[in-house]
Write a sequence for this structure.
């Protein structure tokens, strides 16, 4: 039986619900028709893809349920056709429902077979169908149509069953095992499992109960694979488009255009539902004082409240989740492209390590800026809609909104114009700081040995202060932007109320029924208006960061100057016919490399180092290269690799040579196991691996290392001795033979080895029966060993003047004679190397508790799981407790002012509704709130935040520079650098704004909640329930989210390490042609890093959803209480409550988002605190100042010394020195020899205060246990084998103790004092120049500024740099008069002629000093008074030492 008006679309007659025609057209035809259109496209799309899911019982159950639905809809159609109660839409609606049921079955089948999860289309339509069928059931039963009602109820139940079935994951049914292993969790979840983030339950449970690891997180699926993201962006950003402005940003948008466009749907739903809230509020307020209100209308209003507030919460969460997915896709694509680019850079650009900054500082701006860019059109739409709906209440006065709209647009444009370059300038300074910090970290142990720890600490802190100063411009613009947003937010309601009041919109007095809906709409308008001020500058800054990434990706790449092709053998050349094929060890002789009048120069330098180079290298030959220090041997080696510039002439390389193995003077090693380091990009073959170890004399060393070949060597091989590093580099080059490499370049590889070991390796590899001979390898060998003449097929002689001479060894000609003569004269290398190699104490370091790299910075503590409120004190103390308290008081006043505005309106409307004078008070409240907000922002960003960030950076730097040698030797430098990059950026960029927003939103939310609860007397009952619910949520959520944040930060560290290693080892990576292998490793690390990053965003979205739903539940309860409990509230109180409720959900969301942002930064504080507390440092509790001229004699006494590298648990750690007792008289020279691990370097380290020891060590009567370590080292002259290069000029490096940073010049000195300082400075400069001249490394500085030349521009070779370090020690000795000198084989890469000069200088300038020398060669200690032979930490024997006691 139809009601009156059922055959019209909208009836004026009173009926229980909507008309039947409205129901059939809007609730049946519209959704069914839409589903048919999209379902057809979906079926066609999946039909073109292969089946991914195998058939199973689940499929048949789904099809059976679908068939039941078809039958039910067919019965429903028949019943409607037989019924006399119908409208003009009845038959089309029923028919479309039947067709839609058929399409549901088709979609169910095609999706089950071809899609790994249920589409949003099917899940959403089934859910809507359940609601529609429920509505139809009610409608039919009300109209006495029982049969149709029963069918509709049955259809609703069937759809619900099918919906539940679609939620069952299909990961176990996947056909492809690769996809199956990368799936699970969200990847195969149903629509509602994804919508309500139910896939996070396993992770949240693990995090709540215990410690969470990356392996506990679900997989992201193929669509988030870094390899897939890389290729997708590559397709949309081809090379011919890369030069266009903003082309990278456009390519990202094009690559994921559908992911961007799909955001529109839930975002429009958010707008619609949000703007429905004031009208729901209007209806509820209007019904509060109506005693005759029907239950049906009240129920309808409650359902409308649920839909408006709850629906907005769900759609908002869906929007956020889609944005997060888009950011994760861009992260994977951009990071992978930056990594791929890093292997193609020029060496000079690679050293800048720009990608590390781009991955941290710049991408953080993209994370916030890209969602802001998406929000701009929606904010404009919300402003326009707000204006339109406002006209419903205040007519044409709504145009007054144009005033703040124009203001925000103009301000946003102005701020955006200046913010992007300001942020770019800041990020460039961050890049500079990180590059220089990375350089310091790689040399830190050697720097500390010189006593420069305090100076480096000052330098690193100075870099931070400079960067902070560079950020001031950006911070000022940020303050102006945020302050303008606050002003617009506060004053927009005042402008609207003022206009409505003076144009008599309210009539004679304010009406609660009218003013609160107006303010409700205004609150919806003022939020997008305030956002526009911030969104545009943020989006423009994001575009600037995209431009910086694009500039990096479009940098000029390294161009291999070699000409590749088949090299023809010259017909008339002695070089090609001088030897037969059999003499080269092969069945035929072909030319692999040929120089034709080539001039070689370092990359980026126009003046050639070598000129008119003309020779060929033949297959299977061994070419020995000789030349004095700085003659260009390394340049020639790099030229063979394509890493030097060919200024003139040609260098031809045979097309069969696709890679060249290299081992240089400074061996590049990754922070991996010894096996992985040697095997590299090739497959592991145990037999060949052991052969290589035997030939490179590594088997004995591996036996003494924990884990043997699985020992992790640390950053740059810091956990190994110099000889071990060199031999592992040789082994890597030899192992490459297994991968098909047949050309090997050895550049001075024996400098760190003793003669016996060097000869064994040389003969074993290159002798007549050598391994490389057997494999017909082509070898270019640079060395000081005379024996190379005997095993070489040809000789190269570099005379040091840019000329290269070539000669075949079959002709004992002039070149060989010159080489022999120069070797005898000591001009090409060391004449009599001997002794046992060894540089650093390896076995003892390996036994430290932190032997696993990065363990010390990844200690899992209880605070990781449960948190620690004391963390906030770390930042509070850095800011200053009093200053922060005053600042929080201002934030509270600002929040009170904002929240009091609607309360003021309530008081105004209740007490003096007709008095317009109270408008002044309303305006003053808002203006004062805006004023307090501006002061808060100004004080925070320009004073408190810089002070805190510099202070926290100082704490980190202090711990790093005071860390023990064992810690630095076993901790990944990339992990420490990550603390200087990502952690410090979070503390400087994210923490201040997060702290401001968190406190502001928290105070505002508390006040708004109180206002809502005051809206109805019975609402106070919900307060405990709401607080308990929030407490449960945060307790359950926070334990996991805190760990996710730490996992996110920690998983970022390997990416930093990978980029750092690719920059330092670029020559090796390209020569071995293992770019693809390294890139694949980076993609694996990136995939692992993506997981905590993504799940952290998901957890934040889930928390926002839950809190939104809690806020919605408050609104629902408010509506129920106001409508059903009479006299529980007045219109005024209910209006104020609803007005606050409209913004409460937003406030909750903002509070949570800012709080989570604060927690991310707090995670960095946690890592900082753990690092500071857990890093073993050299700080001693009780120290006394050293005497002024100490050490004045150089007497050294060790009595019963037992020394260890580790601190604590001494009984479980072997000793580096065992019961050593020795007395060294003043003025004696003592040589120390022994194999690796014998204790040589440990003896020196004990004297330098690096080791914890028992017993007594005294120098000139001073017990070293009472000396401050840095002061101790600064008083001792130390010459290390590790080259120390500081940032700055030649003068800064020679006189590092005189260099200061950030200190103002003392202008208070009188003329005499200034003249005295000038004379002192000139004297030091004269000493520095004399020393450089004596060592033969001054001439190259003349044209470059002398002592003012930058060290990086000096053009020094590795040998020159060793001489420069010796010059630093000589200058230090001449200035201080110290009588104790420690030397660790400082001339390994210096030819014998210059070595003789060094020894003469040491005799002259170190006369009267006690000199202790760790020697690899006997000639180094030939003039020693005493020689100590050490083994296993003990003094095994002593030669010619009269006063030795032990």
């Amino acid at each position: 039986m139809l009601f009156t008006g059922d055959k019209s679309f909208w009836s004026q007659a009173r009926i229980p619900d909507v008309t039947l025609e409205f129901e059939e057209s809007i609730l049946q035809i519209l959704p069914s028709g839409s589903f048919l259109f999209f379902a057809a496209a979906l079926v066609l799309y999946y039909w073109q893809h292969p089946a991914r899911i195998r058939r199973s019982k689940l499929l048949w159950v789904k099809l059976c349920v679908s068939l039941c639905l078809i039958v039910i809809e067919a019965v429903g159609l028949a019943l409607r056709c037989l019924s006399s109660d119908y409208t003009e839409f009845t038959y089309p609606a029923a028919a479309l429902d039947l067709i839609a049921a058929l399409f549901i079955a088709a979609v169910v089948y095609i999706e089950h077979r071809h899609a790994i999860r249920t589409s949003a289309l099917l899940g959403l339509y089934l859910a809507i169908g359940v609601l529609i069928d429920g509505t139809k059931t009610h409608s039919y039963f009300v109209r006495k149509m029982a049969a149709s009602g029963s069918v509709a109820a049955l259809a609703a139940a069937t759809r619900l069953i099918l919906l539940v079935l679609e939620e069952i994951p299909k990961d176990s049914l996947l056909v492809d095992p690769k996809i199956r292993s990368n799936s699970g969790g969200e990847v195969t979840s149903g629509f509602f499992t994804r919508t309500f983030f139910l896939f996070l339950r396993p992770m949240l449970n693990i995090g709540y109960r215990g410690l969470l690891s990356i392996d506990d997180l679900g997989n992201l699926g193929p669509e988030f694979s870094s390899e897939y993201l890389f290729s997708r962006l590559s397709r949309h950003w081809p090379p011919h488009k890369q030069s266009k402005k903003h082309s990278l940003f456009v390519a990202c948008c094009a690559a994921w255009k559908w992911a961007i466009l799909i955001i529109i749907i839930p975002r429009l739903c958010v707008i619609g539902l949000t703007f429905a809230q004031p009208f729901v509020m209007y209806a509820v307020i209007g019904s509060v004082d109506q005693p005759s209100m029907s239950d049906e209308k009240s129920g309808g209003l409650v359902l409308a409240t649920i839909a408006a507030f709850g629906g907005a919460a769900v759609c908002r969460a869906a929007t956020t989740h889609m944005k997060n997915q888009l950011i994760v896709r861009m992260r994977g694509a951009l990071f992978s492209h930056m990594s791929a680019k890093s292997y193609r850079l020029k060496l000079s650009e690679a050293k800048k390590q720009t990608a590390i900054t781009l991955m941290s500082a710049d991408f953080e701006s993209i994370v916030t800026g890209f969602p802001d860019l998406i929000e701009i059109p929606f904010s404009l739409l919300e402003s326009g809609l707000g204006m339109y709906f406002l006209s419903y209440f205040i007519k044409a006065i709504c145009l007054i909104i144009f005033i703040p709209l124009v203001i925000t647009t103009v301000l946003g444009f102005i701020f955006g114009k200046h913010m992007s370059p300001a942020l770019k300038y800041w990020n460039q300074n961050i890049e500079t700081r990180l590059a220089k910090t990375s350089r310091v970290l790689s040399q830190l142990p050697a720097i500390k040995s010189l006593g420069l720890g305090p100076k480096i600490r000052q330098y690193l802190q100075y870099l931070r202060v400079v960067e902070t100063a560079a950020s001031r411009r950006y911070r000022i613009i940020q303050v102006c932007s945020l302050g303008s947003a606050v002003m617009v937010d506060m004053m927009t309601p005042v402008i609207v109320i003022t206009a409505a009041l003076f144009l008599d919109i309210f009539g004679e007095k304010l009406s609660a029924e009218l003013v609160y809906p107006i303010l409700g709409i205004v609150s919806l308008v003022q939020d997008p208006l305030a956002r526009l001020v911030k969104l545009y500058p943020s989006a423009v800054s994001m575009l600037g960061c995209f431009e910086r990434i694009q500039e990096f990706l479009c940098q000029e790449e390294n161009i291999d100057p070699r000409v590749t092709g088949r090299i023809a053998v010259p017909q008339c050349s002695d070089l090609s016919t001088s030897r037969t094929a059999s003499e080269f060890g092969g069945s035929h002789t072909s030319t692999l490399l040929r120089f034709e009048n080539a001039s070689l120069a370092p990359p980026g330098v126009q003046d050639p180092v070598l000129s008119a180079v003309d020779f060929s290298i033949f297959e299977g030959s061994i070419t020995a290269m000789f030349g004095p220090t700085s003659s260009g041997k390394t340049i020639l080696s790099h030229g063979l690799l394509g890493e030097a510039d060919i200024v003139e002439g040609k260098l031809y390389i045979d097309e069969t040579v696709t890679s060249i193995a290299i081992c240089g003077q400074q061996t590049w090693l990754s922070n991996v196991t010894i096996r992985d380091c040697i095997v590299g990009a090739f497959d592991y073959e145990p037999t060949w691996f052991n052969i290589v170890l035997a030939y490179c004399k590594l088997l004995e060393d591996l036996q003494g290392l924990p884990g043997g070949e699985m020992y992790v060597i640390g950053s740059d091989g810091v956990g190994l001795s110099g000889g071990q590093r060199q031999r592992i580099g040789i082994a890597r080059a030899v192992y490459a033979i297994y991968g098909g490499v047949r050309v090997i370049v050895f550049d001075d590889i024996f400098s760190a080895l003793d003669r016996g070991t060097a000869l064994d390796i040389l003969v074993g590899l290159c002798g007549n029966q050598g391994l490389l001979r057997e494999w017909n390898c082509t070898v270019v060998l640079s060395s000081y060993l005379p024996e190379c003449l005997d095993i070489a097929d040809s000789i190269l002689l570099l005379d040091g003047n840019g000329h290269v001479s070539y000669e075949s060894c079959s002709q004992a000609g002039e070149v060989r004679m010159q080489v022999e003569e120069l070797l005898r004269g000591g001009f090409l290398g060391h004449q009599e190397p001997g002794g046992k190699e060894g540089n650093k104490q390896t076995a003892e370091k390996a036994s430290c508790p932190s032997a696993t790299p990065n363990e010390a910075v990844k200690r899992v503590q209880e605070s990781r799981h449960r948190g620690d409120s004391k963390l906030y004190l770390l930042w509070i103390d850095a800011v200053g407790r009093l200053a922060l308290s005053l600042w929080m008081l201002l934030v509270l006043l600002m929040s009170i002012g904002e929240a009091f505005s609607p309360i003021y309106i309530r008081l105004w409307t209740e007490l003096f509704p007709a008095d317009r004078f109270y408008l002044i008070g309303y305006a003053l409240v808002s203006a004062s709130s805006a004023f307090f907000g501006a002061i808060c922002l100004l004080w925070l960003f320009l004073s408190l935040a810089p002070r805190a960030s510099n202070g926290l950076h100082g704490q980190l730097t202090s711990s790093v520079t005071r860390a023990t040698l064992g810690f630095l030797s076993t901790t990944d430098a990339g992990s420490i650098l990550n603390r200087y990059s990502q952690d410090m950026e979070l503390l400087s960029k994210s923490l201040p704004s997060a702290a401001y927003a968190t406190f502001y939103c928290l105070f505002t939310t508390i006040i708004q909640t109180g206002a809502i609860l005051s809206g109805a007397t019975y609402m106070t009952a919900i307060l405990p329930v709401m607080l308990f619910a929030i407490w449960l949520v945060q307790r359950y959520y926070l334990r996991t989210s805190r760990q996710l944040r730490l996992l996110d930060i920690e998983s970022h560290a390997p990416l930093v390490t990978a980029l750092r290693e690719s920059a330092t080892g670029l020559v090796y990576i390209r020569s071995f042609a293992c770019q693809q292998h390294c890139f694949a490793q980076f993609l694996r690390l990136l995939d692992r890093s993506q997981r905590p990053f993504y799940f952290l965003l998901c957890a934040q979205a889930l928390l926002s959803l839950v809190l939104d739903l809690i806020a919605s539940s408050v609104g629902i309860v408010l509506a129920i209480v106001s409508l059903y409990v009479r006299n529980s509230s007045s219109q005024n109180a209910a209006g104020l409550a609803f007005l606050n409720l409209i913004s409460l959900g937003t406030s909750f969301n903002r509070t949570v988002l800012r709080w989570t942002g604060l927690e991310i930064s707090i995670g960095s504080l946690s890592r900082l605190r753990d690092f500071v507390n857990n890093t073993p440092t050299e700080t001693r509790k009780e120290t006394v100042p050293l005497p002024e001229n100490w050490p004045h004699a150089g007497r050294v006494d060790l009595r019963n010394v037992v020394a260890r590298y580790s601190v604590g648990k001494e009984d479980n750690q072997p000793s580096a020195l065992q019961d050593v007792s020795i007395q060294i008289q003043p003025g004696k020279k003592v040589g120390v020899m022994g194999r690796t691990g014998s204790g040589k370097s440990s003896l020196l380290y004990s004297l330098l205060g690096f080791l914890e020891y028992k017993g007594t060590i005294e120098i000139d009567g001073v017990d070293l246990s009472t000396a401050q370590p840095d002061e101790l080292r600064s008083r001792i002259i130390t010459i290390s084998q590790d080259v120390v290069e500081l940032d700055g000029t030649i003068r800064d490096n020679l006189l590092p103790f005189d260099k200061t940073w950030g200190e103002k010049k003392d202008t208070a000195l009188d003329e005499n004092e200034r003249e005295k300082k000038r004379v002192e400075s000139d004297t030091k400069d004269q000493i520095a120049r004399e020393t450089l001249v004596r060592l033969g490394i001054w001439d190259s500085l003349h044209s470059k500024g002398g002592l003012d030349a930058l060290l990086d521009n000096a053009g020094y070779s590795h040998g020159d740099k060793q001489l420069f370090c010796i010059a630093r020690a000589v200058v230090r000795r001449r200035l201080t008069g110290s009588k104790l000198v420690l030397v660790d084989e400082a001339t390994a890469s210096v030819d014998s002629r210059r070595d003789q000069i060094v020894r003469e200088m040491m005799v002259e300038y170190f006369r009267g000093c006690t000199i202790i020398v760790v020697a690899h060669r006997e000639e180094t200690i030939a003039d020693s008074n005493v020689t100590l032979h050490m083994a296993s930490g003990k003094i095994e024997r002593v030669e010619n030492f009269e006063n030795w006691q032990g």
